[in-house]
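Aim 2 progress update. The chain analyzed this quarter is reproduced below.
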Amino acid sequence: MKGVPVRIEVGPRDIENNQCVITRRDNFEKNKLFSLEGINETIKAFNGRDTSKHVQYSKKRIWQNKTTSARSLEEFKEQMEANQGFIKTMWCGDEECEEKNQSRNRSKIKMHAI
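Predicted structure tokens:
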């Protein structure tokens, strides 16, 4: 997530009542009506919460949901056509094989063998 981890909603009635609504952008948890007085401390408290842990968990979950496996070239081709995302598969480590794969399947190796 880029930018500010909270959204502050302030409308005309909120200004009249000296209040606002704060929403976390990482989990879209809406928190009701905070006083505009002392809003700096309130925002600092929100940033101090587990926002970064939640963002890391969300990224990991998205990565896992977009990753499939292929044990053969045929499975790899099927996954390329059926899904967007990442495909776990074996790779010999040879750059020539990588270049063949890129030209044949329009794909790139994102992680290298250890």
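The chain has five helices and five strands. The longest strand covers residues 19-24. These observations will guide the mutagenesis experiments scheduled for the next reporting period.
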